[in-house]
Write a structure and sequence with these properties.
Blueprint lengths: L2 E5 L12 H7 L3 E3 L19 H14 L5 E7 L1 H11 L4 E9 L17 H8 L19 H4 L1
Parallel strand pairs: 1-2, 1-3, 3-4
Helix pairs in contact: 2-3
């Protein structure tokens, strides 16, 4: 069986995988769903200096501290930016990178450069103290329509 690390996108955390983790583990896979610094239950750590470099370090450190090898690294949305960086820094620990509805970044581009729904740079300047990008969509905007899932 495989070892998977599921990396979520912006405004999300490991909790997003609550339904899929038991299914994957029941099939014998070893699965991790970390929450990146400043997101989800780690939102209290958000600061202007937290960004992609920090998030790449989060995942590389987890791979090292858990001593994981031959990992299938799955990135969703902004998580694609993260797994690309992890692929550069920890390639010897990885078997595959999977981009699941994720950004596949070009050198020098940020996730905001790919946004088609909203100008995230303008939102950060006007609504996010110049650096944060607050959630601009409600659950329905992410395709979540079940009330229990929204809660």
């Amino acid at each position: 069986m495989a070892t998977f690390v599921l990396v979520q996108g912006a405004w999300h955390g490991g909790w997003c995988c609550k339904k899929v983790l038991p299914l994957m583990r029941a099939r014998g896979h070893d699965v991790y769903a970390p929450t990146l610094t400043g997101l989800g239950e780690r939102a209290h750590l958000l600061a202007p200096d937290i960004g992609l470099t920090t998030h790449v370090r989060d995942i590389v450190a987890m791979l090292e501290y858990e001593d994981l090898h031959d990992v299938v690294l799955v990135g969703h949305s902004y998580g694609g930016m993260v797994i690309t960086g992890v692929g550069r820094e920890a390639a010897s620990r990885l078997a595959h990178l999977i981009y699941l509805g994720a950004f596949l970044p070009e050198t020098g581009k940020s996730a905001g450069d790919y946004s088609t729904r909203v100008d995230v740079h303008a939102v950060a300047k006007t609504m996010g103290a110049g650096w944060r990008v607050p959630v601009t969509l409600h659950a329905e905007g992410f395709g979540i329509t079940d009330a229990a899932d929204t809660a």
